[in-house]
Amino acid sequence: MSDTDWIVRPHGPVQTLAENLWFVDAPLGNLDLHRRMVVVRGQAGGLLLHSAIALNEAGMTWLEGLGEPQVLVVPNGFHRLDAARYKARYPKLRVICPKAARTRVATKVVVDEFYGDKLPFEADESVQLAHLEGLHKREGVLRVQSADGHSLIFNDALFNLPHMPGIFGFVYGRLMGNAGGPKVTTITRWFFMKNKKNYRAHLERLGAEPGLKRVIVAHGSLIDREPGEVLMRVAATL
Ligand SMILES: [Fe+2]
Fold this sequence. Notes:
By secondary structure, this protein is an alpha/beta fold. 26% of the residues lie in helices and 26% in strands.
Protein backbone atom coordinates (compact mmCIF):
# COMPACT_ATOMS: atom_id res chain seq x y z
CA MET A 1 0.00 0.00 0.00
CA SER A 2 1.42 3.35 -0.98
CA ASP A 3 0.70 6.84 0.30
CA THR A 4 -1.18 7.57 -2.91
CA ASP A 5 -3.49 4.54 -3.01
CA TRP A 6 -7.03 5.43 -2.00
CA ILE A 7 -7.07 3.65 1.36
CA VAL A 8 -10.28 4.24 3.30
CA ARG A 9 -10.13 3.83 7.05
CA PRO A 10 -13.26 3.83 9.20
CA HIS A 11 -14.86 7.27 9.50
CA GLY A 12 -18.07 8.82 10.72
CA PRO A 13 -20.84 10.61 8.82
CA VAL A 14 -20.66 14.06 7.30
CA GLN A 15 -21.85 16.70 9.75
CA THR A 16 -23.12 20.06 8.55
CA LEU A 17 -22.32 23.25 10.47
CA ALA A 18 -23.28 25.99 8.03
CA GLU A 19 -24.08 26.53 4.36
CA ASN A 20 -20.36 26.44 3.53
CA LEU A 21 -18.90 24.34 6.35
CA TRP A 22 -18.87 20.60 7.13
CA PHE A 23 -16.76 18.11 9.06
CA VAL A 24 -16.07 14.38 9.28
CA ASP A 25 -14.43 12.57 12.20
CA ALA A 26 -12.45 9.35 12.04
CA PRO A 27 -11.02 7.26 14.87
CA LEU A 28 -7.25 7.10 15.22
CA GLY A 29 -6.66 3.37 15.40
CA ASN A 30 -8.12 1.87 18.53
CA LEU A 31 -7.50 4.97 20.60
CA ASP A 32 -10.16 7.09 22.27
CA LEU A 33 -9.08 9.81 19.91
CA HIS A 34 -10.32 11.11 16.58
CA ARG A 35 -8.94 13.08 13.70
CA ARG A 36 -11.19 15.57 11.96
CA MET A 37 -11.48 16.84 8.40
CA VAL A 38 -13.13 20.21 7.87
CA VAL A 39 -14.56 20.99 4.44
CA VAL A 40 -15.11 24.61 3.41
CA ARG A 41 -16.77 25.88 0.24
CA GLY A 42 -15.56 29.19 -1.11
CA GLN A 43 -17.86 31.79 -2.62
CA ALA A 44 -16.99 30.68 -6.16
CA GLY A 45 -17.86 27.06 -5.31
CA GLY A 46 -14.41 25.51 -4.89
CA LEU A 47 -13.60 23.38 -1.85
CA LEU A 48 -10.90 23.66 0.79
CA LEU A 49 -10.08 20.51 2.75
CA HIS A 50 -8.42 20.98 6.15
CA SER A 51 -6.70 17.86 7.54
CA ALA A 52 -8.13 15.68 4.79
CA ILE A 53 -9.53 12.21 5.47
CA ALA A 54 -9.97 9.70 2.63
CA LEU A 55 -13.72 8.98 2.57
CA ASN A 56 -15.63 5.96 1.36
CA GLU A 57 -17.39 5.97 -1.99
CA ALA A 58 -20.56 7.59 -0.67
CA GLY A 59 -18.50 10.21 1.12
CA MET A 60 -16.49 11.08 -1.96
CA THR A 61 -19.66 11.27 -4.05
CA TRP A 62 -21.00 13.74 -1.49
CA LEU A 63 -17.76 15.73 -1.52
CA GLU A 64 -17.58 15.95 -5.29
CA GLY A 65 -21.23 16.96 -5.37
CA LEU A 66 -20.41 19.96 -3.18
CA GLY A 67 -17.82 21.35 -5.54
CA GLU A 68 -14.34 20.90 -6.95
CA PRO A 69 -11.62 20.20 -4.37
CA GLN A 70 -9.16 23.04 -5.00
CA VAL A 71 -7.16 23.60 -1.79
CA LEU A 72 -5.63 21.05 0.57
CA VAL A 73 -4.55 22.40 3.95
CA VAL A 74 -2.10 20.20 5.85
CA PRO A 75 -2.34 21.88 9.26
CA ASN A 76 0.93 20.63 10.74
CA GLY A 77 3.71 18.17 10.09
CA PHE A 78 1.81 15.30 11.68
CA HIS A 79 -1.67 15.64 10.12
CA ARG A 80 -0.62 14.33 6.71
CA LEU A 81 -1.94 10.76 6.69
CA ASP A 82 -4.17 11.13 3.63
CA ALA A 83 -2.61 14.21 2.01
CA ALA A 84 -0.82 12.34 -0.80
CA ARG A 85 -3.95 10.34 -1.57
CA TYR A 86 -5.91 13.53 -2.21
CA LYS A 87 -3.14 15.09 -4.29
CA ALA A 88 -2.97 11.93 -6.42
CA ARG A 89 -6.75 11.93 -6.88
CA TYR A 90 -6.97 15.67 -7.56
CA PRO A 91 -3.61 16.70 -9.11
CA LYS A 92 -4.65 20.37 -9.39
CA LEU A 93 -5.06 20.74 -5.59
CA ARG A 94 -3.00 23.59 -4.17
CA VAL A 95 -1.30 22.41 -0.99
CA ILE A 96 -0.90 24.89 1.87
CA CYS A 97 0.76 24.26 5.23
CA PRO A 98 2.31 26.27 8.08
CA LYS A 99 5.76 27.48 7.11
CA ALA A 100 7.64 25.47 9.75
CA ALA A 101 5.76 22.28 8.85
CA ARG A 102 7.14 22.27 5.32
CA THR A 103 9.91 19.70 5.83
CA ARG A 104 7.63 17.03 7.27
CA VAL A 105 4.71 17.76 4.93
CA ALA A 106 6.95 17.84 1.85
CA THR A 107 8.03 14.25 2.47
CA LYS A 108 4.45 13.28 1.59
CA VAL A 109 3.23 15.93 -0.84
CA VAL A 110 4.60 18.95 -2.72
CA VAL A 111 3.84 22.15 -0.82
CA ASP A 112 2.69 25.11 -2.93
CA GLU A 113 2.15 27.87 -0.36
CA PHE A 114 2.25 28.73 3.31
CA TYR A 115 -0.40 30.12 5.64
CA GLY A 116 -0.79 33.85 5.10
CA ASP A 117 0.92 33.98 1.70
CA LYS A 118 -2.38 34.83 0.02
CA LEU A 119 -6.06 34.05 0.33
CA PRO A 120 -6.87 30.35 -0.18
CA PHE A 121 -9.50 31.38 -2.74
CA GLU A 122 -8.62 34.40 -4.83
CA ALA A 123 -10.51 37.58 -3.87
CA ASP A 124 -12.64 35.62 -1.34
CA GLU A 125 -12.24 37.08 2.16
CA SER A 126 -14.68 34.54 3.62
CA VAL A 127 -11.89 31.97 3.97
CA GLN A 128 -8.56 32.95 5.52
CA LEU A 129 -5.50 31.13 6.88
CA ALA A 130 -2.99 32.66 9.28
CA HIS A 131 -0.14 31.45 11.45
CA LEU A 132 -0.84 31.59 15.15
CA GLU A 133 1.54 33.96 16.88
CA GLY A 134 4.05 32.57 19.33
CA LEU A 135 4.07 29.07 17.84
CA HIS A 136 7.13 29.12 15.60
CA LYS A 137 4.90 29.07 12.47
CA ARG A 138 4.19 25.40 13.22
CA GLU A 139 0.44 25.85 13.60
CA GLY A 140 -2.20 28.25 12.37
CA VAL A 141 -5.90 28.96 12.33
CA LEU A 142 -8.46 28.83 9.54
CA ARG A 143 -11.22 31.45 9.64
CA VAL A 144 -14.45 30.83 7.77
CA GLN A 145 -17.26 33.34 7.46
CA SER A 146 -20.72 31.83 7.18
CA ALA A 147 -24.20 33.35 7.23
CA ASP A 148 -24.54 32.65 10.98
CA GLY A 149 -21.16 34.09 11.99
CA HIS A 150 -17.55 33.03 11.67
CA SER A 151 -15.79 29.85 12.70
CA LEU A 152 -12.19 29.39 13.80
CA ILE A 153 -10.63 26.06 12.96
CA PHE A 154 -7.63 25.19 15.11
CA ASN A 155 -5.40 22.17 14.85
CA ASP A 156 -3.20 20.86 17.68
CA ALA A 157 -2.68 24.28 19.26
CA LEU A 158 -6.02 23.90 21.05
CA PHE A 159 -7.57 20.69 22.32
CA ASN A 160 -11.00 20.00 23.79
CA LEU A 161 -10.98 16.41 25.00
CA PRO A 162 -13.01 15.20 27.97
CA HIS A 163 -11.33 13.03 30.54
CA MET A 164 -11.44 9.45 29.28
CA PRO A 165 -11.56 6.08 31.04
CA GLY A 166 -8.91 3.37 31.06
CA ILE A 167 -5.16 3.38 30.79
CA PHE A 168 -5.20 5.61 27.69
CA GLY A 169 -7.36 8.15 29.49
CA PHE A 170 -5.05 8.11 32.45
CA VAL A 171 -1.73 8.31 30.59
CA TYR A 172 -2.63 10.39 27.53
CA GLY A 173 -5.38 12.42 29.17
CA ARG A 174 -4.31 13.04 32.74
CA LEU A 175 -0.57 12.39 32.94
CA MET A 176 0.25 13.99 29.59
CA GLY A 177 -2.25 16.79 30.14
CA ASN A 178 -4.21 16.40 26.89
CA ALA A 179 -7.73 16.11 28.32
CA GLY A 180 -10.03 18.02 30.64
CA GLY A 181 -11.77 20.55 28.39
CA PRO A 182 -10.51 23.37 26.18
CA LYS A 183 -6.78 23.78 26.72
CA VAL A 184 -3.32 24.28 25.31
CA THR A 185 -1.75 20.90 25.91
CA THR A 186 1.56 20.19 27.57
CA ILE A 187 3.00 18.93 24.27
CA THR A 188 2.08 22.17 22.54
CA ARG A 189 3.55 24.19 25.40
CA TRP A 190 6.83 22.22 25.33
CA PHE A 191 7.37 21.59 21.65
CA PHE A 192 5.31 24.10 19.64
CA MET A 193 5.22 27.25 21.71
CA LYS A 194 7.99 29.78 21.29
CA ASN A 195 6.44 32.78 22.97
CA LYS A 196 3.44 32.19 25.21
CA LYS A 197 2.72 35.90 25.65
CA ASN A 198 2.26 36.25 21.90
CA TYR A 199 0.03 33.18 21.70
CA ARG A 200 -2.01 34.45 24.64
CA ALA A 201 -2.46 37.84 22.99
CA HIS A 202 -3.49 36.23 19.71
CA LEU A 203 -6.06 34.01 21.43
CA GLU A 204 -7.44 37.07 23.22
CA ARG A 205 -7.80 38.96 19.95
CA LEU A 206 -9.54 36.01 18.33
CA GLY A 207 -11.82 35.62 21.34
CA ALA A 208 -12.77 39.29 21.35
CA GLU A 209 -13.76 39.47 17.71
CA PRO A 210 -17.53 39.97 17.32
CA GLY A 211 -19.49 37.33 15.44
CA LEU A 212 -17.50 34.30 16.55
CA LYS A 213 -19.96 31.43 16.24
CA ARG A 214 -17.86 28.37 16.92
CA VAL A 215 -14.36 27.06 17.49
CA ILE A 216 -13.47 23.76 15.86
CA VAL A 217 -10.52 21.74 17.14
CA ALA A 218 -8.74 18.77 15.59
CA HIS A 219 -9.17 16.55 18.64
CA GLY A 220 -12.26 16.87 20.79
CA SER A 221 -15.66 18.50 20.81
CA LEU A 222 -16.63 21.64 18.96
CA ILE A 223 -16.84 24.73 21.12
CA ASP A 224 -20.10 26.44 20.20
CA ARG A 225 -21.24 27.79 23.56
CA GLU A 226 -19.65 31.16 24.33
CA PRO A 227 -16.63 30.38 22.12
CA GLY A 228 -15.10 33.83 22.63
CA GLU A 229 -15.21 33.48 26.41
CA VAL A 230 -13.68 30.01 26.14
CA LEU A 231 -10.75 31.37 24.11
CA MET A 232 -10.26 34.09 26.72
CA ARG A 233 -10.21 31.50 29.52
CA VAL A 234 -7.67 29.37 27.65
CA ALA A 235 -5.55 32.45 26.97
CA ALA A 236 -5.52 33.23 30.68
CA THR A 237 -3.81 29.88 31.37
CA LEU A 238 -0.77 30.86 29.31
FE1 LIG B 1 -3.14 16.23 16.12
